[in-house]
Amino acid sequence: KKRVLTGITTTGTPHLGNYVGAIRPAIAASRSDDTESFFFLANFHALIKCQDPKAVHQSTKEIAATWLALGLDPEQATFYRQSDIHEIPELNWVLSCVCAKGLMNRAHAYKAAVDANVAEGEDADKAITMGLFNYPVLMAADILMFNADQVPVGKDQIQHIEMARDMAQRFNHLFASKKQPLLTLPNYQVDEHVAVLQGLDGRKMSKSYGNTIPLFLTEKQLRKHINKIKTNLLEPGEAKDPDDSTVFQIWQAFANEEQTAEMRQAFADGIGWGDAKGKLFELVNAELAEPRERYNDLMERPQDIEDILQMGAAKARKISQPLLQQIRQAVGIYPLS
Ligand code: TYM
Known about the structure:
Catalytic activity: tRNA(Trp) + L-tryptophan + ATP = L-tryptophyl-tRNA(Trp) + AMP + diphosphate + H(+)
CATH topology of the largest domain: Rossmann fold
Distance between the termini: 37 Å
CATH superfamily of the largest domain: HUPs
Subcellular location: Cytoplasm
Function: Catalyzes the attachment of tryptophan to tRNA(Trp).
Number of helices: 13
Bound molecules: ligand 1
Strand order of the largest sheet: 1-2-3
InterPro entries: aa-tRNA-synth_Ic, Rossmann-like_a/b/a_fold, Trp-tRNA-ligase, Trp-tRNA-ligase_bac-type, Trp-tRNA_synthetase
Main location: cytoplasm
Largest sheet: 3 strands, parallel
């Protein structure tokens, strides 16, 4: 069976970008008989960006409830919290000892932080923690710990998967035989149609830009958010360019082919922005209405979510514990005899 694995950082409230870019395709794939799925809450990664304990904790609950509400079957998939898998931070250390510092210097997230500091005339390393620098190594540990074949992610994460591949290769080269590599080289999987969803301001929808549309708003709030999507100043009746429109881009992510063609035509015919947004609300709401109810219900029962995560951790550790033993053995860490 093919192993598919992906994670979400537990900061903030899940948004349409996470849903379209990660959760929806992941859950769909997990229903196929020839895959074995691993989904997890990356709460160690959250500490890199967020030093508000209540926020990290709350977000963990919200994201867990989100996956379950959207139809993830925790019996079929393995659904867990990163911090419950004690083998991950250990592998993180082992990988950090085979990973070249130069590789990490090229990581986008780190480079962006350095560039921002420099642009502001600050010290290049200001507020850059070892956690941020090490981010791709921890992520590689998440992936390699379960010998994942496929990692479905948004485009922003491709570089991290490639780095995980590099680390796996390096580890195998140093510590395993060619015939029996210990770590599987992972592949990223990006859905080209909906790779990066735009946010309210037209930039990538992202917690860090504050431009998101959260997944489980009330209907009223969802409509309000959709109405806030930035549009250019074209009057009703003027032809609009769908390929330069966040409204159309989000439409496409929720519509079938026929609906997409219809909206493309409506844009050419100069549909008013108010109308287009009204239709977008209906479309998105139709997909999210039922999961929203399940979500609200689950959020009232945190102990049930906790039980599911514990079950997931037990399942996951059946794999991570023996693999870590092999890794320890390979690097020379085993009992004296
Ligand atoms: P995170 O939490 O930033 O995002 C989770 C997933 O959602 C995707 N995504 C988007 N997709 C489309 N449009 C958007 N606007 C959008 N915003 C976010 C992201 O690409 C990602 O797939 N480092 C990861 C979490 C992680 C992980 C892992 C993922 C930790 N360990 C191991 C895979 C495997 C992250 O911060 O994702």
